[in-house]
Amino acid sequence: xxxxxxxxxxxxxxxxxxxxxxxxxxxxxxxxxxxxxxxxxxxxxxxxxxxxxxxxxxxxxxxxxxxxxxxxxxxxxxxxxxxxxxxxxxxxxxxxxxxxxxxxxxxxxxxxxxxxxxxxxxxxxxxxxxxxxxxxxxxxxxxxxxxxxxxxxxxxxxxxxxxxxxxxxxxxxxxxxxxxxxxxxxxxxxxxxxxxxxx
Length: 199
Description:
Elements: E1 6-9, H1 25-36, E2 42-44, E3 49-56, E4 59-64, H2 73-83, E5 91-97, E6 105-109, H3 117-126, E7 132-137, H4 147-151, H5 157-180, H6 183-193
Parallel strand pairs: 1-4, 1-5, 5-7
Antiparallel strand pairs: 2-3, 3-4, 6-7
Helix pairs in contact: 2-3, 5-6
């Protein structure tokens, strides 16, 4: 299995008004992860990106919240991965998922973007789909014409509680992945210890 060398949280990160929106759940996940392990981000001028270094079991993992809007995420990730000589297959990307209800979270490796602009951007610039993903459910408005407005608004209080529960438990699964380099073990842990929802 491929070991994780960089974890990326997707979002619209060039405008503070998007910080608490559904579309920024990937970025917020990284913030939660960095707080849990007391990781501080530092500006790397060469990259124009804020980088954090997560150290677990003598493994150094890059944490990145791309300094870009969602549909340009791929460019930021490409520049940073080149600088640190990290292959796409060693990157885990965390993002919101319309097809799952809040409280549902799943790992994925490879496959299509499912219409997600951030994932589309990564696939396009790397010309490859083989990377790890952690998809956090945000639910669907029920009408595709309402999706843009839906993802750019904040979750409801109940949705946020479900999302917070999801993030807390999925971090444990992520640690299983990092410590064992075993994707299947992490998937099994996540699916047996998570995906509970507050009604």
